[in-house]
Amino acid sequence: MKYVVLVPDGAADLPLEERGGETPLQAARIPNMDFLAREGICGTAVTVPEGMPAGSDVANYALMGYDPREYYSGRGPLEAASMGIELGAEQVAFRCNLVTERGGCLADYSAGHITTSESRELILALRECLDDEFTSFHPGVGYRHLLVLKGLKHLEDRCFPPHDVVGKEVESILPQGPGAARLNALMRLSRRLLAKHPVNRRRVAEGLPPANLIWPWGQGRTPTLPTFAAKYGLRGAIITAVDLLKGLGKLAGLEVVDVPGATGYYDTDYSAKAAYARDCLRRLDLVYIHVEAPDEAGHEGNWEEKVKALERIDELILGPLLDETVRSGEDYSFLLVPDHPTPIAVRTHVAGPVPFAIYFPQAKPDGCREFSERAAAEGAIKACEGWKLMDIFLERAGGIRASSRV
Predict the structure, then answer these.
(1) Same structural domain for residues 130 and 147?
(2) 405 lies in a domain?
(3) Confidence of residue 179 (pLDDT cuts 50, 70, 90)
(4) Are 212 and 230 in the same domain?
(5) Which of 127, 205, 303, 324 is 20 to 30 A removed from 391 (C-alpha atoms)?
(6) pTM
């Protein structure tokens, strides 16, 4: 048996009156997802425990089978793990966005989805001017980068996720806490240095949002996880364009697969993800495929792009993997589940339940006719704890039980 976990990030949504009371999942043409729901077992899962931040970090801990309440320690250290950066005893890792400030307000959490090549120039310029024995900048992908600071007091700082505060006055949403003065000083220095950088001058001349401010958030220390293999006895891989997920996969002992053309945005190469997933499944037992595009569309309030992203995932990733079960003669099992909702109307993550579908050849369908929030709510499994969903999937599909020794 081979196992596929497909995570369309932020795919779950709320009905929109102006769209006939439908969600993007209901509006999209997703025959392969509907097949999994119709021929499998459906339900809803709560991937973000009460009181925890509704982020992809917390939610994907849960979907990989780790209780976030026990293991979660912030987003930054996961990105550090992805980059191969080991934190010292007194170091704290922050996710560091490049954002656009306009008129004193946070105008864009991604600086217009700045390219990796442009952002790398900017982060390296900040490194040259601001790195010291207490501070280090590390370039990542797109607008997503890393800031490492010395001083455990920073664990107590309160920082706002930038996608949650777009449109607010920057001075009202700056970091707060025992290390906030240093963070705020770095942010103000970045404003001065980035404004005059040639990359931003060129972007402004081309009518693009400048990346004129850093935004640190999601800080933490490196967690210690039991490996996925130790928990389930399976060899697995993760396919994602997002450093956060790569880091979590690495800490879980999964093979981290870099896919050319995977961008973490609408233009990601869906077909390449499917091809690399097929290759993984020839060598390994399980592949965890994360696709960021629906989440980005939710943050931008872009209905058309969210629907299109879901249709591309269905046609170009799930369809070929379903076909592979016929070509290879190997039994495949599928868990299809968003990590959290990112509603178009809200433009940020929320902690509501997400729909899921579990399919394997011997599954006894529970009557769901489509993959959607409304249909899954009538499925056989209701509001299960998200971190238990992997256990349910592997036990029902393959008779695999999580080890009690980890």
Answers:
(1) yes
(2) no
(3) very high
(4) no
(5) 324
(6) 0.88
